[in-house]
Write a structure and sequence with these properties.
It is a single chain. It contains two helices and five strands; from the N terminus they run βββββαα. The longest helix is centred in the last third of the chain and has 74 residues. The protein is an alpha+beta fold and 168 residues long.
Amino acid sequence: QVIAGSGLDVGFTLISPSGYRLLSDFRKSDGIHTVEPTEEGDYRICFDNSFSRISEKMVYVEVLTDASQDDEEEDEDWAALAEPEDSLEYKLEDIRDSMEGVHRNLERSRQLQASLRAFEARDRFLLEDNLWRVSFWSSASLLVMLSVAFIQIYTVRRLFTDRHRVCT
């Protein structure tokens, strides 16, 4: 998501470890992409601002990975902890399920808060930019109005000045 910068748009490309282009966006302000990793290695994320060389951009990026391998290791750890006993096994399973639910909910709320912070930052930068524009043009309008008022006063006074004096 582009948070600040002129136009609020940027190019995006995702490249596989072997060098193939998997995803590509051109001049978008935000986007969500899901990719199934088919290769082992480092994937590259490239942002392109070459169409707007003068202005810089601030971009919020969040990369989420599926942690299915970690879950399998946790399952083995829990299984090693609990020797199969009737009531103890059920209680440990219940505790484990509730802890996993709390962990998922906390992780999801963290992700949502990060996204909301990015939206708030983008809106704040946009508002500050608009405030500068409004202040500038308001000041320019005020100067024009004051100069027109002074010119009108000067013109009206010159109309009523008596240049010819009559002697009595």
